[in-house]
Specification:
single chain; mainly alpha; about 75% helix; binds 4-fluoro-L-phenylalanine
Length: about 525
C-alpha cells in the first residue's frame, strides 16, 4: 500500500483549518434564528434538558461516526455517502444506493439556503442605507419583507429585484469558494470568517447586555430577558413534540446526517485526529448557539416587546424573528443602524460558511466517482442549481421552499444518520469502528460510547423517524395542510426532487459500470 495521503485527492492544509471548516458548516442561520425560537417556544431553560441529551446521545456520537467514516472513505478514494457506504460494508452491492439521500439532501438544502443567505446580505445593506429606518410596527415590517420577497403578486417584478440581485451574488460567491477547492477555497474562507463571526458575536452580546431597560416598562430589562429565555418550564417535558424539536435542532445545528461532515473529513490524512477535532467543532457550535445566540436574541426582543410580545415572536418562527422583529429592534436602539448591519453581516457570514459545505458532497461525488474535474463539476451543479433556485424564488409563496425543507432538512437527515450509524456499528463493526476512530486520536473516546453508538443512537433515531413519519409524514404526503391553490407547485417541487434523485442513481450506476466501485487500493491512488 502506498503512503497515506498520497492519493490524488486534496488534503486540508492544517488541523485548525478543518476544525474551522466543520465549525463554519455547523454555525449558521440555524444557530442565530432557529435556536432562539425553538428554545423560547419549547419551555425555555427546560428545553435545554432534551437539547443536551440530544447533544450527548445523538450529536456528539453521530459527528464522531461521520468524521471517522469520512476519513476512512477518503483514504479509499471516496468522499461522498455512496462510495463511503460501499467501502464501509466491505463493498456490498446495494450499499452505494443507500447513499443517495445523503447527496440529494445537502444540495437541495443549498438551493433554498442560498436564497435566504441573499436576504441576509440585502438586509445588511438595507441597515446601513436606512432603507427600513422609519418602520416602527410589525405590520409594516411584514409588508416590507413580503414586498422584498416578491410574494405580493401585484408588485412582483417591481419589488423582487434586490432579493434577486443578492441571490445572484451569493450564488456566485459560493461557487467561487467551491471552485477554489478545499484548501484554497473552503479552508481559507473559514479561517477568515470564523474570527469575524466571533468578534461580531461578542460585540452584539455587549450591546445587548448594556441596553437600557424599556423607558415605560422598567421590568423589561436584560436580566429579566435572560430569565424569560432560560427560566425552566418543566411541565412542558411531558410533551413529545418538545423532544422531537430538540433532536431536530441538534441535527440542523451540528450539520450531522447531511453528508457534509463526511465529505469534509474525507480530505483528512489517514492519521489525522478525528476524536478531539470533532468535539472541538461541536463545542464551537454550541458556544455560538447557546452562549451567544441564547444571550443576544431573546433578551433583546424581551426588552423591546415584553413577555407577551416575545411569546408571539417565538410562535411566529425563525424568519419573522430574523427579518421582522430584529430590524424593528434595531430601529429603536441607539446605534441601531450599525448594530443591525453587524447582525445581518453575522448571519451572512455564518450562512456562506454553511452553504459551501452543502455543495461539497456533490462535488466530491462527481470528482471521485465520475472523475470529472472541478470546473466541470462546479458548472453542472451551478447550472442545475440555478434553475432549481429560480423555481423556488418564483414559487416561494406557494410553498416550494417548505416542501423541500421537509424532505431535505427534516426527514433525510434522520434517515441518513440512521444509515451511517447502523452501517458503522453493525456492518463495519463497532470494534473495528473504534479502532478507526482511535487512529491518531488526541482524545480517547470513553468506551461507554461503544454502547451508545451500537444501541442508543440508532434506537433513538428509529424512534424519531417513526414518530415523525406518523406525525408529519402522513399529512405531508397527502398534502393535508397545503391549500388547494398551492398543490400544483408542491407536486412540481416533488417531481424536481425525484428527477434529481433519478439522475443521482443513474450516475451511481454509470460509475459502477466504469468500475469505480471495484478498484483496488493501489488503483485508487
Ligand atoms: N448547521 C447549519 C445551521 O445551523 O444553519 C445548517 C446546515 C449547514 C445544515 C450544512 C447542514 C449542513 F450540511
Amino acid at each position: 500500500m502506498s503512503e497515506p495521503g498520497l492519493n490524488s485527492r486534496e488534503n486540508w492544509g492544517s488541523r485548525l483549518g478543518v476544525i474551522l471548516a466543520v465549525s463554519g458548516s455547523a454555525v449558521g442561520l440555524g444557530n442565530f434564528l432557529r435556536f432562539p425560537v425553538q428554545a423560547a417556544a419549547n419551555g425555555g431553560g427546560a428545553f435545554m434538558i432534551p437539547y443536551f441529551l440530544a447533544f450527548l446521545l445523538l450529536g456528539i456520537p453521530l459527528a464522531w461516526v461521520e468524521w471517522t467514516i469520512g476519513r476512512y472513505g477518503g483514504h479509499h478514494g471516496h468522499g461522498s455517502a455512496p462510495g463511503i457506504y460501499h467501502i464501509l460494508t466491505g463493498r456490498k452491492k446495494w450499499a452505494k444506493y443507500l447513499g443517495v439521500t445523503a447527496l440529494l439532501g445537502p444540495i437541495t438544502i443549498f438551493f433554498y439556503y442560498c436564497y435566504i443567505e441573499g436576504w441576509t446580505l440585502a438586509y445588511a445593506i438595507f441597515s446601513l442605507t436606512g432603507k427600513f429606518n422609519g418602520i416602527t410596527n410589525p405590520e409594516q415590517m411584514t409588508g416590507f419583507l413580503a414586498g422584498f420577497q416578491g410574494v405580493e403578486s401585484n408588485s412582483f417584478f417591481s419589488s423582487i429585484w434586490s432579493a434577486y440581485t443578492a441571490f445572484l451574488f451569493v450564488f456566485l460567491i459560493n461557487f467561487y469558494f467551491i471552485y477554489r477547492g478545499v484548501t484554497k477555497g473552503i479552508e481559507k474562507l473559514n479561517k477568515i470568517a470564523l474570527p469575524i463571526m466571533f468578534v461580531i458575536g461578542i460585540t452584539l452580546l455587549i450591546r445587548v447586555m448594556t441596553l437600557d431597560p424599556h423607558p415605560d416598562h422598567p421590568g423589561q430589562n436584560f436580566l429579566n430577558g435572560l430569565g424569560f429565555m432560560w427560566n425552566p418550564d418543566f411541565s412542558i417535558l411531558k410533551d413529545a413534540s418538545v423532544w422531537l424539536a430538540a433532536a431536530g435542532q441538534m441535527f440542523f445545528t451540528l450539520s450531522v446526517g447531511m453528508g457534509s461532515i463526511m465529505a469534509y473529513a474525507s480530505y483528512l490524512r489517514a492519521k489525522d485526529d478525528v476524536a478531539l477535532s470533532s468535539l472541538t467543532a461541536n463545542s464551537t457550535n454550541e458556544f455560538f448557539e447557546v452562549v451567544l445566540a441564547g444571550t443576544i436574541v431573546i433578551p433583546a426582543t424581551f426588552i423591546f416587546f415584553g413577555a407577551m410580545g416575545t411569546q408571539a415572536v417565538a410562535q411566529g418562527g425563525s424568519f419573522n424573528l430574523g427579518f421582522i422583529t430584529m430590524p424593528l429592534i434595531f430601529n429603536q436602539m441607539g446605534g441601531g443602524a450599525f448594530i443591525g448591519f453587524l447582525w445581518f453581516l453575522l448571519l451572512f457570514t455564518a450562512g456562506v460558511t454553511s452553504s459551501v459545505s452543502l455543495i461539497q458532497p456533490m462535488v466530491a461525488f462527481l470528482e471521485d466517482e465520475l472523475k470529472w474535474d472541478r470546473k466541470q463539476s462546479v458548472l453542472v451543479i451551478g447550472a442545475v442549481g440555478f434553475c432549481v433556485t429560480n423555481f423556488i424564488i418564483f414559487t416561494l409563496a406557494k410553498g416550494s421552499m417548505d416542501e423541500l425543507d421537509f424532505w431535505a432538512g427534516t426527514l433525510f437527515p434522520v434517515f441518513n444518520a440512521f444509515l451511517a450509524v447502523a452501517l458503522f456499528a453493525w456492518f463495519f463493526g463497532i470494534k473495528k469502528g473504534f479502532r478507526e476512530l482511535d487512529k491518531g486520536a488526541d482524545l480517547k473516546v470513553p468506551r461507554f460510547f461503544k454502547f451508545v453508538i451500537t444501541f442508543v443512537t440508532p434506537t433513538a433515531l428509529l424512534a424519531i423517524l417513526v414518530t415523525w413519519s406518523i406525525q408529519q409524514g402522513i399529512p405531508v404526503l397527502t398534502l393535508a395542510n397545503v391549500p388547494p391553490e398551492n398543490r400544483v407547485v408542491v407536486w412540481i417541487t416533488r417531481l424536481i426532487l425525484l428527477a434529481v434523485l433519478i439522475v443521482i442513481v443513474t450516475a451511481i450506476i454509470a460509475a459502477r459500470r466504469r468500475g469505480r466501485f471495484s478498484l483496488t487500493e493501489e488503483e485508487i491512488r
